[in-house]
Design goal:
The protein is an all-alpha fold and about 140 residues long. It has 7 helices and no strands.
Amino acid sequence: MFLKTLYKFSLSSVFMSLCLGLLLSSSASAGQLKPTMKEMRLHYKQAIDTQDPAVFNEKIAQFLTELQTAQAFKFSPERKVLSLEGLDKVETLVSGLPTATDTNLSQLQNQLKEVDQLRVEYHKKVKPGVFELLLDTLKEAIGL
């Protein structure tokens, strides 16, 4: 009886450890994109807040560089289409902005605010649940 209980306890511990390990490794995989997204957010915020057109233009160029890095990220097949669709919309919007000058800076900053609306929209669409993260990690671990 004791061995049977110990065996069940061991199996459940092993299973829980496996699940936790898979979740953490999945978070690590998703975490590889996180620094890029933080940099994009920083450049976006600096472009929105500046009063200097030259700084705005510089921050937009840096934003677009980080955006290209994000677009090259290896998304899971389930989220790839939506993620790239959102990033492509952001690229179209931002790369279509003309060079900032003293006369159009405020207008460009208002147009740039649409990026934040796209961010909210697409984060809602592609944010995975815990089960999905676990399943994706399991698929990746077995090579599917």
